[in-house]
Amino acid sequence: MRATLLNNYKHYLLASVCLGLGIALFQAVGIISGGFPGMALIMYGIWGKLTIGTILFLLNLVPLILVYHIKGRDFCVLVIICMTAISIITDGILWSIGDGLAFLPHQPWGVLFGAVVGGVLSGIGLITFVQRGANSGGSMIVCAWASEKMKLPLPLVVLATDTCILLWGFFTILSPAQFIYTLLALFCMSGAIYGMEKYKNKGEYK
């Protein structure tokens, strides 16, 4: 039991790092991600008053009511731990290597790299929380609930939600080119989620 708990928290930490790196890549190349991280990037792009991690944490406070009523207090506490880790690690990554990634938009392959790698890392981070019995907070809480209740594939629900956020970004901070690269990033994210789910269903996930 103790070994399983420690193993889960190890995966929560790795998932938080994946999400933080994904957000840092998106921010560096001027695109957005899906879910609440995408909303945080949009809000940061519009106002820039708070750090992305802080905005993300504040956004994640809203769905906690849903978590508490659906999953109970213990799961709610777990989500708070996970979303706090994500917020702190994201700001830590942006503070430590954010300036170092500034060269990417100036490379012919930079934005494509940020979209693909950032999308894959974000997808791996998001689904790892779910597969380990937790949740990263934000839209994934609603997506996982809707997927279960409506008998729809989780990647499809995530893609639909992220499309709405993408449209918000397009009408506020994204150029047409950034919109296309963001769309690519969302497909990479959904592909990573689908791949991880398929990998788990084959019984190879430990």
Fold and architecture overview:
With 206 residues, the chain is mainly α. It is built from 9 helices and no strands. The protein has helices at 2-29, 35-46, 52-60, 64-71, 73-97, 110-131, 139-150, 154-170, 176-201. Helix 4 (64-71) runs antiparallel to helix 5 and helix 7 crosses helix 8. It is globular. It starts with a helix and ends in a 5-residue tail after the last helix. The mean pLDDT is 87.
Keywords:
206 residues; mainly alpha
| Unreliable spans | none
Q: How does the helix and strand content classify structurally?
A: mainly alpha
Tally of DSSP β-strands: 0
Quaternary arrangement of the chains shown?
Answer: single chain
Largest sheet: none
Strand % is under 5%
Mean pLDDT: 87
What is the straight-line distance between the termini?
A: 15 Å
Q: Specify the number of helices.
A: 9
N-to-C SSE series? HHHHHHHHH
If you compute it from the alpha carbons, what radius of gyration comes out, rounded to the nearest whole angstrom? 16 Å
Tell the overall outline. Answer: globular
What fraction, in percent, of the residue positions are helical? over 70%
Brief summary:
With 206 residues, this protein is an all-alpha fold. Helix content is 77%, strand content 0%. It contains nine helices and no strands.
